[in-house]
Amino acid sequence: MERVQEAEDRSSEGRQATLALPKKSSPAEAGLHHNSIRRGCIPQTAWLFATFLLLLPTILLQGGCAILRPQGYQTFVTQTPTPANSYLVIGFMGGVEAWDADKHYVRKLALKLRSRNPPNVNVETVENRQWTLALQLIQNALDRNQDGKLDDQERASARVVLYGHSLGGADVVKLAQKLKEIGVPVLLTIQIDSVGRKDRVIPSNVARAANFYQHDGPFVRGRSEIVAEDSQKTRILGNFKYDYKHKKVDDSALFWLARILEGAHAKLEFDPDVWAKVGQLIVHEIEENPTRTPGSRKN
Question: CATH classification of 73-287, choosing from 3.30.1050, 1.20.1050, 1.10.3860, 3.40.50?
Fold first, then answer.
């Protein structure tokens, strides 16, 4: 009996020892444990993302965002139809900038031109992607008999100047092309660090065209060259390159993240030297040739 009891005691100790061994995890359980560690990082990532979403409206509002309140035709101050021999200068904003974002130089230049109060000169700014509004304005300005269509005399009387920055530069070319399709000439187009598709070839209804650009930006670089669709009808004034590797420009009006992402693209927009030359081209077009017809190319 004692031998039987000893055998039972040894068997019981063995079972207890077996139960005391650490339990091996299955591969699935091991992966679950690993994922639970990784999930510990998710709350922090989600918090950062949520913070960005909360700040985004502030960023957009600070820049004057066209997404939050798109431009309508009623924002134009030009009375239509315009008198004969009137000029219509239209500036296209870049990015998601609102038409009335005064801190951006497209708008600043427009307000400066208005302040000169030249006779028969109308100046407007348009949000990029809103070229249809600008087209409607031009048609209404030229339709002097108000019959809803443009005759040959009305089309020939057009004195249109277009300028634009970034995506607005591409809109300049797009609108010029649309005007060509309906037989309306354009005196001058100016692209400032133009970004977009099909913004290289200037349509043959444009008399003169100029291009300002930079290639220092890490992410955004402007169109480096524009060419005439027909060199007999369009004169390319130049493709003017600006270098910002060593040139300091005050672009503090932009949100800090925009300054980082845009780099030299932002510096060119806030470079007063660039806009002084853009303004000179526009003023020269208006003041030096008040009675020149769009069909007569200037050398």
Answer: 3.40.50
